[in-house]
Structure formats: C-alpha cells, structure tokens
Amino acid sequence: MGGKVWSTEEERVFWEVVIPCSPAAANPAGQTLSWKQCVDLMVEKIGDNARREYTSTMLYEHHYQNFKPGAKSPKANKFLERYMRHVGQSHLLFFFSD
Fold first, then answer.
1. Residue 2 lies in a domain
2. What is the pLDDT of residues 20-67, one digit of tens each?
3. What string of H, E and C letters represents the secondary structure of the chain?
4. Cα–Cα distance measured from residue 6 to residue 51, given in angstroms and rounded to the nearest whole number
5. What is the dihedral of CA 15, 17, 19, 21, to 10 degrees?
6. Are 11 and 73 in contact (CB under 8 A)?
7. Which residues contact residue 34 at a Cβ distance below 8 angstroms, ignoring those fewer than 6 apart?
8. What's the domain count of the chain?
9. Which of 13, 15, 87, 93 is a plausible cystine mate for 79, CB 3.0–4.6 Å?
C-alpha cells in the first residue's frame, strides 16, 4: 500500500511551485525542469517540513495518481482543482491559437 499522507505544505509546494516547472506543467512553455530537477526544487522549497525522501519517480507518480480519475491524495484537492483549471485554460489557449 502507499506511504504517509502528504502534508498540506507538501501538497502546496508540489502543486504551486514544482508542477508549474515540471514536465507536467499546464503551460508547455513552463516545462523547464526534468523530474530529477524537480526533486531538488521540492527539497529546497519544503526544507525542514519534508516528511519523506523525494525521488523523481515519487513526484511523477504523485502527479499521475492525483491527475487521473480515482483516488486522490486527501490534502491535494484545492491545489489539484487550481491545477486542473490551468490545464483546461492552457488547452483552450493552444486550441484557439491557430
């Protein structure tokens, strides 16, 4: 089964700081970091509030498990909803840009 539930601060840093720079960024122009580089950013920003040892696989899987339909991280909802709005807006901008 899974590990410890992510804290609200971990979710905030993940969705508001890391994901906008990750390969999963809503805006493709913002995809500046690899998942491995995202680990360094997560560690830097979360600091002493880290509840786990972050890996690139963990960050990718956390995004994937929350993004796809089904089980969500209990404290991710408000951050995920905001991210989904950005994804929707990004796709609309791309669709109508031609």
1. no
2. 999 998 888 878 999 999 999 999 999 998 999 999 999 999 998 887
3. CCCCCCCHHHHHHHHHHHHHHCCCCCCHHHCCCCHHHHHHHHHHHHHHHCCCCCCHHHHHHHHHHHHCCCCCCCCCHHHHHHHHHHHHHHHHHHHHCC
4. 8
5. 170
6. yes
7. 23, 56
8. 1
9. 15
For residue 46, what are the domain limits?
Answer: 8-96
Q: What is the pTM of this model?
A: 0.75
Q: Would you say residue 40 lies in a domain?
A: yes
Q: Which two tokens stand for residue 36?
A: 């491995």
Residue 54 near residue 18, CB atoms below 8 Å: no
